[in-house]
Write a structure and sequence with these properties.
94 residues, mainly alpha
């Protein structure tokens, strides 16, 4: 066996293990994102309830509604991109 070939295969194996994704990293990131989204919506609902009973000022209500709207639009945009990517994968020839 050629020494250069052996060195190349060792380097490839090291680079491959270094570039391998960490198990559970994507799931943890998605869980954190989903938790943040749910928390934002819950805070918006809580502020809206407080505003209806006179416990919050209108400015806080407007801020909460804007934050909730931004969160929902962001999730919808991400969902659309995921669906688009999935459809693109389905169109790929085998």
């Amino acid at each position: 066996m050629d020494v250069r070939t052996s060195l190349a295969t060792q380097s490839y194996a090291q680079a491959r293990s270094a570039a391998a994704p960490k198990p559970g990293a994507a799931e943890a990131g998605f869980a954190r994102l989903a938790g943040s989204f749910a928390e934002t919506l819950a805070q918006g609902e809580q502020t809206a309830r407080a505003a209806m009973t006179g416990g919050a000022d209108p400015h806080a209500l407007v801020q909460a509604l804007a934050s909730s709207q931004l969160a929902v639009e962001t999730v919808a945009t991400v969902r659309d991109k995921v669906v688009e990517a999935y459809q693109e994968i389905l169109r790929m020839p085998i």
